[in-house]
Each structure stands twice: as C-alpha cells, then as structure tokens.
C-alpha cells in the first residue's frame, strides 16, 4: 500500500507522467533557462502553478531541499496537490519536526475533501496505524532530506 501511495504521490507531483514516458515527461516539464526568472517571480507573487513547476523541476534534478521549498510555496499559494506531496514527503522524513509538519499539510488537504483530500485522509489513517502498531511500511524515498 505504501509503495502504491508513493506512486500516486509521484503521479500527482509529476502531473501524470508516471510510466514508460517518464523521462520524456520530465524533460517536457523542465523550465527553459530563459524563462526561469519569470517563473520564479510568478511563484513568489502567488502563482501555485509556477511554484509547482519549480518543485517538479527540482524533483527531476533530485534537489530535494529546493523541491520541498517550492512545493511548500505552491501549497501556500493554494495548490492542494503540492500540499499533499509536501505532506507526504515530510511525513516520511527521519526528522520528527518534519514529520509533524508533514501531518499539518496532510490534515489541511484532508479538510478540503475531493480526491486529494480523501487520499490525504487515507494516508493519515495509515500513519496513525503505523504509530499505534510500531510497524513501518517500506517506502521508496530519497535518503536526503533538507535539514531544519
């Protein structure tokens, strides 16, 4: 179940490019260097789509500190998908503070309802069950997390 949830999170995060065209989907979403400053400006001014594009780009480059930074900005700008993805990633962090913050984002998404809200609710239940039983499910995630 956890592996499936990770794939679903990646599906959301990558905007639906999971599968055989994964590499093609990543390269298609990369921000051209001439547009980067404009996209960053839009993200900082409140565009959830621009911030999400930046998070996707940094995820593809495996720069996870920047991925979480821009994903959080996208979530703050109103993207439910970005909020779920940031919550999911942080909930699997080895750092207790990051796991707590991950739950914050997941609860926020769960409160909105819809498909993403139901997914967040289900994942929160799974996290509660893991805490209650002490059983951790293996999740394929990068070992490098930003340090707070």
DSSP helical segment count: 8
Q: Could you tell me the strand content as a percent range?
A: under 5%
Mean pLDDT: 80
Radius of gyration: 15 Å
Taking the alpha carbons of the first and last residues, their distance comes to 29 Å
Q: How does the overall form come out from the CA principal axes? A: elongated
Question: What structural class results from the helix and strand content?
Answer: mainly alpha
Largest sheet: none
Order of helices and strands: HHHHHHHH
Low-confidence stretches: 11-24
Helix content: 55-70%
Total strand segments: 0
Structure description:
This protein is an all-alpha fold and 148 residues long. Helix 1 packs antiparallel against helix 6 and helix 4 packs antiparallel against helix 5. It is elongated, with a radius of gyration of 15 Å. 29% of the residues are buried.
Task: Show the helix and strand layout.
Blueprint: H1 2-14, H2 22-29, H3 36-44, H4 48-60, H5 64-76, H6 80-91, H7 96-110, H8 114-133
What are its keywords?
148 residues; mainly alpha; elongated
